[in-house]
Every structure is written in structure tokens, then in C-alpha cells.
Design brief:
alpha/beta, D-Maltodextrin-Binding Protein, domain 2, 3-stranded parallel sheet, 8 strands, disordered C terminus
């Protein structure tokens, strides 16, 4: 059996709720005769009466009561679906810039908490070693390292960084576990060196060099 038009079911639900053609017509902003005609056409299509019509009294038939229960559930589900779709469309999208080292070593552990606490936010992570360009790259927020000397930007301090001396065990033992002697005689790598290899993402690269080479001393900011 084909479903009747949605409009006809809507008319039926309103009439059944008010048990009055007049009040239903007022809610639907149509004439009483239009409501009566719509219900009559629906009954003819279904093949059974939905209402018992008596002078100054309108009651639901057994079939009408059963249909009303399902119509209410269907309209509720339809309303929930439309609300869900509307909520999805209203999810805010934020483009967040971050250097690869900060993204992998600091940011990633916090992302799950962000998704749980703010499910309405869609985060687009922009990972790059170049300085963020808010004007051309459509970046909303940037996690940057520096002194905060950007007068045109709204800034929020997150955390301090610290400088540590890091040396492989093999090299440390080579200098009789004398850290001061080791630091004085071995070239140091800094993330502030001008070489393109290190650049603004030098910390991450230097740690990788230390792990793989195992013979380099580095002072790094973390």
C-alpha cells in the first residue's frame, strides 16, 4: 500500500489532537471545509473511517487511534532527524596552524579531550614549518614559539620552554661522564641556527638526529 501524502497525515494529526475541525483549521490557517475535505479524502484512500462524527462531538475510531500513535512517532523521528542535520550543519570549523614538532610532541595527546568536550567543533590541523599567514592562508588559530611580539595579534600564553643539555650515553662515557668537558669540546646543535635543515622546527629534527646518530650533543628548547 502506498503511503498517503504527508500533508494529509499532518492534517489528520492536528484534527486528532484537537478533536475539532474548527480548531485544526485555525492552527493550519485554512478553512474548516478544507480540513474536512482533506480528512475525507484520506479516509477514502485508506478505506476506513478515522473519526466518529456526531453532532458537536468528534472522536477517534479504533483505526484512527492506532494510526495516530504511529503518525506521532513518525513525525517525532522526522523532527529529530531534521534537528540532527541542522546541528551537523552548524558545526564550527577551525583551522589550527602548528609546527610538526609541536603537533606530534605536544598537541596530539590533547586532541581526543577536545573532541569529547567540544564535539560541535571541527578542527582542521594545518602543519607547516613556515610562519603562519593569517591573511592569505585562512588560519584561525596558530600555536607558535616566540616572545609574543606580535602587536596586531590577540595572544594567549600557553607554556614556558626550557633548555636542556642532551648527550648520547656512548659519547658521555667517552668523556668520562664529564658533562662540562663534553659540552666544551663537542659542537652543539641549536634550533636557532640559520641553516635551513634546522629552521623553526629544529627541536624535532635535532632529537631525531641524536637518536639515530648517537654521537651528537645538542642543547634544545622543549
Amino acid at each position: 500500500m502506498k503511503l498517503p501524502p504527508l500533508e494529509a497525515l499532518r492534517y489528520f494529526e492536528v484534527v486528532a489532537r484537537h478533536l475539532s475541525f474548527t480548531q485544526a483549521a485555525d492552527e493550519l490557517c485554512v478553512s474548516q471545509s478544507a480540513v474536512s475535505q482533506k480528512i475525507l479524502l484520506l479516509e477514502n484512500r485508506l478505506g476506513y473511517k478515522l473519526f466518529h462524527r456526531k453532532p458537536r462531538q468528534l472522536t477517534l475510531s479504533r483505526e484512527g487511534s492506532e494510526l495516530l500513535r504511529h503518525v506521532i512517532l513518525a513525525f517525532d523521528q522526522l523532527q529529530q532527524a531534521m534537528q540532527h542535520i541542522s546541528d551537523i550543519q552548524q558545526i564550527r570549523s577551525i583551522d589550527l596552524y602548528c609546527m610538526p614538532s609541536m603537533a606530534s610532541c605536544w598537541l596530539m595527546p590533547y586532541l581526543q579531550d577536545l573532541y569529547v568536550s567540544c564535539p560541535e567543533i571541527s578542527l582542521n590541523l594545518v602543519v607547516d614549518t613556515c610562519e603562519p599567514n593569517f591573511r592569505d592562508d585562512a588560519i584561525d588559530v596558530a600555536l607558535c614559539h616566540g616572545y609574543g611580539d606580535m602587536p596586531s595579534m590577540l595572544k594567549q600564553f600557553l607554556l614556558h620552554d626550557y633548555i636542556y643539555s642532551v648527550v648520547s650515553k656512548t659519547l658521555f662515557e667517552k668523556y668520562d661522564c664529564d658533562l662540562e668537558r663534553c659540552l666544551q669540546q663537542i659542537p652543539l646543535l641549536h634550533d636557532s641556527l640559520p641553516q635551513p635543515l634546522l629552521g623553526g622546527n629544529g627541536l624535532y629534527i635535532m632529537v631525531k638526529i641524536l637518536i639515530h646518530k648517537q654521537d651528537i650533543v645538542t642543547t634544545a628548547q622543549i
